[in-house]
Amino acid sequence: MKILTILGARPQFIKAATVSRAIAANQNITEVIVHTGQHFDANMSDVFFEQLDIPKPNHSLGIANLNHGAMTGRMLEAIELIVEIERPDWVLVYGDTNSTLAGALAAAKLHVPVAHVEAGLRSHNLAMPEEINRVLVDRISSVLFCPTETAVENLHVEGFPFTESKRKAQKILNVGDVMYDATLYYREKVRENILLTEWGLDEKGYVLCTLHRAENTDNPLRLESIFDALREINRDLPVVLPLHPRTKNLLERLGAMRWLDGLRLLSPVPYLEMQRLEMDAKVILTDSGGMQKEAYFHQVPCVTLRDETEWVETVTMGWNQIVGSNREKILSAFHRPQTHVNQTLQPYGAGDAALRITDYLWNNR
Ligand code: UDP
């Protein structure tokens, strides 16, 4: 059996690493990897392939730095050709990026079944490019691998699973979260090999922040307000900020690099280093999807710099506060003690999501 995996962005490398490992353990499955090139910098791409032992891509498209339409269009054209040449049994897509949409669309039109990992997530905000991608990819996928029960419910509310007369009904499965698999798999390695002294930081003596969502970076007012709050927090505790290239470019273009004054800037860090920074942070402030969950996996309080979240369980369990970009709200959430209301729930599965995904694809080839 052949699986064609479509990747392109940092979070997808992390998600795919666990599934690729499970696929490699089944000698009857060949995985062919397409890297669209959406994220291409060495520290946003190569380092993840090396550190997480992801097989080298069989096809590298080098499509990056374009507007959404041009990027998705070129990917669609290139992936269509690859699907025709490779003739896979499944096309496997992850998450919600333009690479996910292009891969799913190319495959579905060639009648190759699409498997969507992280299906059913919703922010209920169609202003987000990611939300548009998710909704469309879910609709044309054959199997929807949901990370949580909330994701399954989201799909049911929208009328999923759909049945077409000439196709099998869609299958919806809650397999758990592949990023939880990754956290469990690498946790000990991180503890043993990565030391906080690498950055001259003390345990629980700093705050970790990441910022890259378009809703923040494309809105100078939001961005300025967030950085005002970060500089204020930085008076109490160092704010460590591995700066996403997109955010850096936008700040440079705005002539607003002074907003970063005093913050502990880092280049994007590799996955294992990032887990160490997360584990020992006092608080994580972020607009990243993955980091909200990882904060919970590492039992670190999170303040989310967005107006909504797809990972609602982190909020209901008391580990995550959704505050948007308002300076006062950020500061008050940062200073407000957390109340962890439910420590016993395990909403992200049992750490075997990758295995369950691979087994399903193999048994339904
Ligand atoms: N991450 C990383 N290095 C960094 C920033 C993030 O390894 O400098 C990891 C982080 O631990 C998480 C993933 O990247 O596993 C989240 O990706 P990102 O925030 O880019 O995307 P999102 O999750 O918002 O889609």
Radius of gyration: 20 Å
- CATH architecture descriptor name of the largest domain: 3-Layer(aba) Sandwich
* Bulk shape: globular
Could you state the CATH homologous superfamily of the largest domain?
A: Glycogen Phosphorylase B
**What is the overall pLDDT average?**
96
**Might you state the CATH topology name of the largest domain?**
Rossmann fold
Number of helical regions:
15
Helix and strand run: EHEHEHEHEHEHEHEHHEHEHEHEHEHH
Structural class based on helices, strands and sheet pairing:
alpha/beta
**Beta-strand percentage range:** 5-15%
The first-level CATH class name of the largest domain: Alpha Beta
Helix content: 40-55%
Largest sheet: 7 strands, parallel
Number of strands: 13
Number of domains: 2
Strand order of the largest sheet: 3-2-1-4-5-6-7
Which molecules are bound in this entry? uridine-5'-diphosphate
C-alpha termini separation: 7 Å
Low-confidence stretches: none
